[in-house]
Write a structure and sequence with these properties.
Number of strands: 6
Shape: globular
Radius of gyration: 14 Å
Structural class: alpha+beta
Largest sheet: 6 strands, antiparallel
Order of helices and strands: EEEEEEH
Helix content: 10-25%
Number of helices: 1
Oligomer: single chain
């Protein structure tokens, strides 16, 4: 039986800071909560990748786990580390973006 989850495809721009305090603008392409892993995920891509005139350029997608912080206004993004989560995310991304292209 397939797990049911809701996809949010509303694009949004996020400014994220790395460990050195450098900021990078990302576009949120996909957001979902997966009940099987009981986690909230976002798929991001660097906004600078969308400013290229080269339509054939491949855009690197960055899956992240979203954790709400105690103040409930800020979030922490953590990398995906398990192979099972990578497989699930790859399947969701491939299915979702194949439908968009058709």
């Amino acid at each position: 039986m397939a797990e049911e989850f809701e996809l949010n495809q509303e694009e949004e721009l996020l400014t994220l800071f790395d460990e050195e305090g450098n900021e990078t603008l990302y576009r949120k392409l996909l957001e979902f909560e997966h009940p099987g892993f009981n986690k909230h995920y976002v798929i991001l891509a660097e906004e600078s990748n969308f400013n290229s005139d080269d339509d054939e350029e491949q855009i690197d997608l960055i899956p992240m786990i979203v954790e709400e912080l105690e103040d409930e206004e800020n979030m922490k993004f953590s990398p995906v580390t398990s192979d099972e989560e990578w497989d699930m995310i790859e399947e969701i991304v491939n299915t979702n973006f194949d439908e968009v292209e058709e």
